[in-house]
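2.7 Reproducibility. Because tokenized structures are sensitive to small changes in the input, we list the exact sequence used for Fe-S cluster assembly protein SufD, including any N-terminal residues retained from the expression construct. No trimming or masking was applied before prediction.
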Amino acid sequence: MSTAVDTTAAAVEMEHVESHLHPEPTYDLQAHPLPTGREEIWRFTPLKRLRGLLQDAPSDGHLEQKLELPASVTLTAISLDEASALGGTAPFDRLGALAAKNAGGALLLDIPAEADVTEPIRVHLHGTSLDEIVWGRLVVRIGTQARATVVIEHSGSTTYDAFTTVLVGDGAQLDLVHVNDWADDAVHAEQINARVGRDATLRQFEFTLGGDLVRTSTNVDYAGPGGTAELFGLYFADAGQHFEHRLFVDHTAPKTVSNVVYKGALQGEKAHTVWIGNVLIRKVAEGIETYEENRNLVLTDGCQADSVPNLEIETGEIAGAGHASAVGRFDDEQLFYLRSRGIEEAEARKLVVRGFFDDLIRRVTVPELAAKLSSQVEEELQRHVLKELA
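Resulting structure tokens (single pass, no recycling of outputs):
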């Protein structure tokens, strides 16, 4: 059965739009100079904590893999040139370009056209050492009119930089789940560039619960009209952790839809989270609808949450566009209500945070994963806030 996916560069060839948030995408490393930290796309990132990931240093490091692939799904090794030729947008920054250059090869996760894959496709990547940098290159391709859920889980200790391409064929439906549950000493940078076909749907979930520094960049464009991209995220940062999530939705076709909802919580001294969202509505993208939302809940003193939503609109012929952003502490009214019903403060705080994240976790279509995420949120609360209240 063919896996036809019209996701070539020609399918969404557009005039480049100058943007300080999004340099022109290219695989050419020379076009992505070593940053100083003053550039807009780097000003929130503690560059020294990237442990040399911005240097051009080839490495033989690797992550352990554990796979669960239904019968119709394949994972094959391909060359870097073959990965680039499959289509999708080139890297937007130096980290993406370095991963694409130094990975040594790529993996193609292929879901055939018209397949209805009811079991989750699982890829578990585990780091075992900080001694070597690990470069990764992955292509996830789902064929026309297919349906599937792909879960990519990260754990262990590593210094890891990956470039991932996601190609969603016409009429296909893909749920893509990234779980970043690293050990506290891990560094993880990743760029995920997705192309959504005509009348196709991509739902991406990103859960960041561990690591010393995690910086991910998700970028979406459309290969035809009628495509939908829903990007959901949850992050929970503890003392000293830096979690940075950057999102860019490029409406390159008319009558497309995007919806972005990310929620985060912070606790502990020098916990720092960054969320940067940007939506570009091109002249050709008439009749589109978009909304982006980021909410942050600060649980203790000494934390910092940066939240920057952006809209770039080149046409007035749109169905709707908006954004919302907030950073705040517990809702005093909710706490008062719960305390007035005889609930202890520690338990009341736990209920508020659970409710804050619950609508995102409930969207996950893998029940055991949703239960695991709920449990991990509980563990994060036990780690700090509830100890203070004891």
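The radius of gyration is 20 Å.
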